[in-house]
């Protein structure tokens, strides 16, 4: 706990954009103003801190943004901030505006930067998990995941229609460089026959045997959903292996890409972002420091930033059993 009274808050979005970030920004700004605290938007994440791209926000600044995807504060990755000189510049810029508390909306890389900065300059930082990957420990959901996975589900449902029309095997790649939650959830929700994710070792022989067995049963319509970070590669690499090993199958490859990042946030993402943004300001008022605001079992949960970074969200083995049984 910090004993310093926070009078001016800076808010920024960092790392990959996620639907619902605007809802979180809106909640931070309006909650702070309600408590008589000034709020400043920091443009392009830590880059904006280093370059002094900071402006005062009011209630009108966040009008009509809750339904918008992306982030009005923009986002960027900052190599300069991870150097001591860059962080000193960032601190000097915050002091010019009198900012003595920060809310960082982003993923694990953003939290690492926040923790380091807070420890060096004694500025309390509160993290909000804004990432479509849902790979941060300490929250059942991250801002943007629900929207991203629903976008993937909608796209895969449409792909299954054309797969059925032509008796095709589709390999669909979704986002997830280090985490397979989008692949897992969208794959189960769309009835995929196989789901390949970074968290488990992909047995290509088992995959080929499974598809061969389905081919013998005249099950010609199959969906394989693969996370981009699977150990064997994405859809192009997996598809190339399948075309060699399954010469009779009509195989098509589809990479969903950045469509999963955009679009209006779902109701769930708007709700959790608003709730987290509200509690982020409450945390600073209460003197909390270096914690991430999450939601666990529908209750607000606080996790030290270093724990949120170190302890990745783990996938339950139950899910893998469900996939195997339901896809048989």
Task: Indicate the topology.
Elements: E1 8-13, H1 21-34, E2 38-42, H2 45-51, E3 54-57, H3 84-97, E4 101-106, H4 108-121, E5 125-129, H5 145-166, E6 169-174, H6 181-189, E7 194-196, H7 204-216, E8 222-227, H8 235-245, E9 251-255, H9 267-286, E10 291-296, E11 299-304, H10 305-310, H11 317-326
Parallel strand pairs: 1-2, 1-4, 4-5, 5-10, 6-8, 6-9, 7-8
Antiparallel strand pairs: 2-3, 10-11
Helix pairs in contact: 1-9, 2-3, 5-6
Structure description:
The protein is α/β, with parallel strands linked by helices and 328 residues long. The chain folds into 2 domains: 8-144 and 265-310, Rossmann fold; 146-261, Phosphofructokinase domain (Rossmann fold, 3-Layer(aba) Sandwich). The protein contains 11 helices and 11 strands. The strands form 2 sheets. A 7-stranded mixed β-sheet has the order 3-2-1-4-5-10-11, sandwiched between helices. Strands 7-8-6-9 form a 4-stranded parallel β-sheet, with helices on both faces. A hairpin with a 2-residue loop joins strand 10 and strand 11 (299-304). Helix 2 crosses helix 3. The chain is elongated and about 70 Å long.
């Amino acid at each position: 706990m910090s004993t310093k009274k926070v009078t001016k808050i800076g808010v920024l979005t960092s790392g990959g954009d996620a639907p619902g970030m605007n809802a979180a920004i809106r909640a931070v700004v309006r909650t702070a103003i309600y408590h008589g605290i000034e709020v400043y938007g920091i443009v392009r994440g830590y880059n904006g801190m280093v370059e002094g791209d900071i402006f005062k926000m009011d209630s009108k600044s966040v009008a009509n943004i809750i339904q918008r995807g992306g982030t009005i504060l923009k986002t960027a990755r900052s190599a300069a901030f991870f150097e001591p000189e860059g962080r000193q510049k960032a601190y000097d810029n915050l002091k010019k505006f009198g900012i003595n508390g920060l809310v960082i909306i982003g993923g694990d890389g953003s939290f690492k930067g926040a923790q380091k900065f807070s420890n060096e300059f004694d500025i309390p930082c509160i993290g909000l998990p804004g990432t479509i990957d849902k790979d941060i420990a300490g929250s059942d959901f991250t801002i943007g995941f629900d929207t991203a996975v629903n976008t993937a589900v909608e796209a895969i449902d449409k792909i299954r229609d054309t797969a059925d029309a032509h008796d095709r095997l589709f390999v669909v790649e979704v986002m997830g460089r280090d985490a397979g939650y989008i692949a897992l959830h969208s794959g189960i929700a769309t009835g995929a026959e196989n789901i390949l994710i970074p968290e488990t070792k992909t047995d290509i022989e088992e995959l080929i045997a499974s598809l061969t067995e389905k081919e013998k049963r005249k099950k010609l319509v199959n969906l394989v959903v693969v996370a981009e970070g699977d150990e064997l590669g994405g859809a192009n690499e997996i598809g190339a292996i399948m075309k060699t090993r399954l010469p009779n199958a009509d195989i098509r490859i589809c990479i969903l890409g950045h469509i999963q990042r955009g679009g209006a946030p779902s109701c769930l993402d708007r709700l959790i972002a608003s709730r987290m943004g509200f509690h982020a300001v409450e945390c600073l008022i209460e003197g909390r420091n270096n914690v991430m605001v999450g939601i666990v079992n529908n209750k607000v949960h606080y996790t030290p930033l270093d724990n949120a970074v170190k302890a990745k969200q783990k996938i339950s083995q139950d899910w893998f059993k469900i996939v195997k049984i339901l896809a048989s």
